[in-house]
Each structure stands twice: as C-alpha cells, then as structure tokens.
Amino acid sequence: MLEVGSLSCSRSCYFHIRQDGDIEYLKKNVKPPTYEETLDALSSLITKRTRADKSNKGDQFDVLFDYVKILDLEDSIFQMKVIHVAGINMHIYRIDTAVEISEDKFLAYFWWCFERLKEKSSEDVPMPTYFRFLALLAFKIFAAEQVEVAILEVGLGGKFDATNLATPLERLLVRKLQKTPAFTVPQPSEAMGVALQVAHPLDSSLLNGLQLGLQGEHQYINAGLAVALCRTWLQKMGHYEGTYLDQANSLPEQFVKGLTTASLQGRAQIVADPFVNVEGPGDAVFYLDGAHSPESMEICGNWFSLAIKEDTQHYGSLKKQPYESSNVSNTALRGPNEFLSMNSIQILLFNCMSVRDPQLLLPRLIRACANQGVHFQKALFVPNQSVYSKVGSHALPSSDPQVDLSWQLQLEKVWKNLVHEEKDSTLEESKEDCEHSIRNSETSIVFPSLPLAIKWLMDSVQQNRSVRFQVLVTGSLHLVGDVLRMIKR
C-alpha cells in the first residue's frame, strides 16, 4: 500500500492513510467534511462550457500534465498498466472487485487532491473541470491502491480526453499498431480503419446454465469483447495456470462468476417503487436505462418490451394463484399481447441533453416497442435535476418556477408528431387499449421538475389501484441517476 500521508483541507480536517490502508482522523476537535459536503465541492467544478469553448485555459490538454505534477503522479501514472476502452455506450469497467474504496477513504483521497489542486491553482493552471478532476482522482486512487491493471473508459473521447494521460505507451506505439492487440464488436466496413480482431458475441452455453448479470441480448456482444480483452491481458502477463485461456469452447470459473454477477446501476435496471403501499395489485415498477444514442434507444426499447412481458406474465400468474393454485400453465399459453392487456400501463419518463437530436432518438424507441406490440399510454418530459448544477444523494432541489422548459416542450412536440403518425398507421384502437388510458386524454405532459412527475405517478397509482404502472426511464444517465435517488432513498 502506498502511503498518502497527512491529508489536509481548508475545513481544518486532517486525514492520514496508514500503511495498512486504514483511515486515521487526526484533528479530534473539528468535524470532518461529510460525504454530502464533499459532493458539493465536486459540484463546484461543473461548468456549462462545451468542449469547443477555448476561453478557459484549464480546458487545454497540456495543463493536465501540470495537474499530474501537483498530485505527485508523474512516475506512477506513466507506469500504470491500462486497458483503454472507447466506443458508443461502452459500459464502465471496474477493476478487481476485491478492492473496495470505503467512503472514509474516498473522502481522504478526494480532499487531498482537491485542496492540493486548489492551493496550486492559478490563472494559467485553474482548477480542473468536473470530469478531469474525477479522472485525476481515479488515477491517484489507482496509484495509491497499487492496482495491477486499470480499465478506463474514455469520457467524450478524442485526442485530448483526460484518460489519455494514462496511455503514453500506446501513443509511442503508433508506428507499431499492427502488433498492438485490439478488439471490437462487428462494425460497418468503413469503421474498420485498422486491422482489428473481431470479438464475437459470447455463446450463452459457456455460462453453465446461468445468465449474464447485465440484462439484454446486446450484453452478449459486450461480454464477448470483455472475454477477449481479459484472455489477451492474462496471456500477455503470463497468467496461464488453471485458467484454460487457450480453450475457446470453455470459460474459466472466474470468468463465469464475473459475467453472471456483474451489475451496473442505470443500465437495464428494474426497481419496484418502495413508496407504493396500497391494497390490491396496483403499483409502479421503474425500468431504467441510460440510453442516449439512436442505437442504444432501439436496444432499450427491445429490452423494455421483453422485460414487461415477462413481468406481466409473472404478475398475471400471481393474480390467478389464489383461485387456480400455483400451476401457471394456462397463463403461460396466453399470447404476449394478451399479457399486455392485463391491467398494465406503459409510461415513458424522458429527457435528453440538448446536444442530442430527439428526431433520431424517439422514433427508434417507439418503433422498437411497437414492433413487439408495446405502446406508451403517456410520455412525461422533465428537466434533469443534477446536470449542470450539483451532484449528490440527498434531497433533490424543489421545483423552480423560473426553470426554462423550452427544450422539454420541444421534446413533447416531437413526441406528439410521432404518436400522431403511429395512430394513422394503425387500425382503430382496441377496447382494451382504451381501458388502459389514463383519465387525462393527453398523450404527454411536461413537468417543471422531476419530483412533480414522480408525485403525479404516485397519485395515478393511488387512483388506479387495479393497474400496474410500468415506467421506462431513459434518454439520459443524469435523469436515470436522479430517479434512482428519489425512488431508492
């Protein structure tokens, strides 16, 4: 363990990370900063500048090397072994699940980095912005915890991405790219600019009857890439014993465990709302996925459609159990559309960043769901609570009457046009579909805040106790995170 030493901060708190990794609080008479206060400090680094804005010198790539010197990372960061991941909607990978960073240790590392950067900041080397600070903090933790290998996902990507700090060796090997192991999932021919090895989707039979921890058929593509990367890394590092790395028709036990127990909040995540406590079957279930590209919206729609069919089938079976025992063969023979008509309503809770094009996102979602007989009875459009303001897990801000809803109104307009087109292309609404509609005949609502939208949902559940509300939350990871904080607090 690398000793970080005494960590001081402007709030007169002092931490010490001992050789055994434990945190020692040195200043006995001063209350240390709380986790929420730490997140407030992190929020202070959020700006509204885009990457194209060159008005701030802190956005220049070269200043990152100044930050590295300030944080005493010059040697360790360039010796760090890194697998660099880039691509649309690649998931964030976590290295060595045996190494957990406790909240106290996170606070110690955070304030050491934050205060040292603040003390050394100047006009030419200002405080790093939000993502850059988090990347630097991660490098400090990786170095101090002496991880064997770090897997990093790019931020916005490109030549000047902060994560490029840890890959100087790759830049030096540009002329020898043919000898650098590289993997990708199947891509259009024009994207295959370099000689890549294609990592094929994982064969589910290799999981010994288990399922991937991350839901969705597309995860077998991601899993195939992860397996290829891990095999290659272990082989290059000489770890052959007992892992059967050269056998394509089998997976090491450790691989199976990792693939089947992996979890990632906000990606194909299902959460039953804990606040609903009413008699009868009426309730709300949230389906959360941070999809925010056309491709991922289609994947999200397919996942949601399959998930609610499975949920409705299970739900319908449970309803019949008091009368027909536990045998569910009758319900299992019902068609998927009949399951969807069993007192369930599909609601979309949506927002996306203004840099996204809703004309590309929403149609992919609607079509993917419609192809499987799933239609949203209502769409709720809300502003994100956290983006460009602050991060944290405490109470979300209340509704601001002055909030600008022009973007949400634009999203609603796109939605209404799409719904109108969809209705024109279908036959007369069935009686069951009409029964599913909420009392308000409008197909969408714009709310000035997320809490108001959640309150509307809960009120609707109370007023419709025979209905299960299946709520898809998508379009923004910020939105998904905000909803999780509200329904899981």
From TrEMBL:
Instruction: Report keywords, A-Z.
Output: ATP-binding, Ligase, Magnesium, Metal-binding, Nucleotide-binding, One-carbon metabolism
UniProt cross-references to SUPFAM superfamilies, sorted A to Z? MurD-like peptide ligases, catalytic domain, MurD-like peptide ligases, peptide-binding domain
Q: Does the keyword Metal-binding apply?
A: yes
Catalytic reactions on record: (6S)-5,6,7,8-tetrahydrofolyl-(gamma-L-Glu)(n) + L-glutamate + ATP = (6S)-5,6,7,8-tetrahydrofolyl-(gamma-L-Glu)(n+1) + ADP + phosphate + H(+)
Superkingdom in the source lineage = Eukaryota
Part of which pathway? Cofactor biosynthesis; tetrahydrofolylpolyglutamate biosynthesis
GO CC entries? cytosol; mitochondrion
Query: Might you give the EC number(s) for this enzyme?
Result: 6.3.2.17
Give the EC class as a word: ligase
Q: What's an example of a GO molecular-function annotation for this chain?
A: metal ion binding
Provide the cofactor list for this protein: a monovalent cation
Please name the GO terms of the biological process aspect recorded for this protein, alphabetically. one-carbon metabolic process
Q: What family, per the record?
A: Belongs to the folylpolyglutamate synthase family.
Name used for this protein in its record: Folylpolyglutamate synthase
Organism this protein belongs to: Papaver somniferum
The lineage is:
Eukaryota, Viridiplantae, Streptophyta, Embryophyta, Tracheophyta
